[in-house]
Amino acid sequence: MTFQLTVPNMACSACGETITKAIQAVDPTAQVEADPKTKLVSVETQTTEAAVKEAITAAGYSVA
User: In 10 A of CB 25, how many CB atoms?
Assistant: First the structure.
């Protein structure tokens, strides 16, 4: 399953790395592309969108 999420408070590439690690903690095989300029996170994963949103929120970021 592939989806895109908007993360308004992702400010830099380090934020993107933190978000990527948080998602991969839930699904180690997830493919994640985080772009701080557009605030978009593209995720290809076997887990649910809700679980991914939860992981991003737990890492300290909001999901729009």
Answer: 12
